[in-house]
Amino acid sequence: MILSSLGAAHLAAALAALMLGLAIFVARKGTDAHRLFGAAFVLAMIALNVTALAIYRLTGQFNPFHGLALMSLATTLWGMLIVLRRRENWMVSHLRMMFFSYLGLLAAATAEGALRLGFLRPMIGGPSGVIAAGVAIAIAFAAVGALVVPRLQRSAMADR
To answer: Whole-angstrom distance between the N-terminal and C-terminal Cα of the chain?
Structure first.
């Protein structure tokens, strides 16, 4: 349930970022469409993370989800900065940052869905249980990403 306009903005940014990220992931890289969708993805991720940093309903204070939002924001902005600077081997670094940016988004969506839909409710007592479950899901996605992202990078670079 969305309880505020801030929550609605957060959800809208999340859905936009999920759709844009998927479009970028399956589309040919380096095209005008890639750049347009990429810029829109970065804007959606900025909006998503800024709104996440303003939501304190769970604990009333800064919590690990805010830390994850800061990491997501940093990864996304770093991926964009790499493109703007275009130093040696920039494309490999850009791909890595943007893959991890989208992977973090998928982790957050999975955690939110599992918690909101009640899949994890029997194991969760209160805010600390919600935080533990969300962080565990983020760690699981990061571990999978550490294995999968290098393969995705090699595949994407081979297509160029």
So the answer is: 43
**What is the DSSP code (8-state) at residue 31?**
S
Global pTM reads: 0.82
Q: Which residue has the higher pLDDT, 159 or 49?
A: 49
Helices (H), 54-89: 64-85
Q: Is the dihedral of CA 113, 128, 101, 151 positive or negative?
A: negative
SS3 1: coil
DSSP-based three-state secondary structure for 56: coil
Which is nearest to 29 in space by CA: 124, 129, 156?
A: 156
Nearest to 14 by CA among 54, 43, 39: 43
* Joined tokens for residue 152: 């995705």
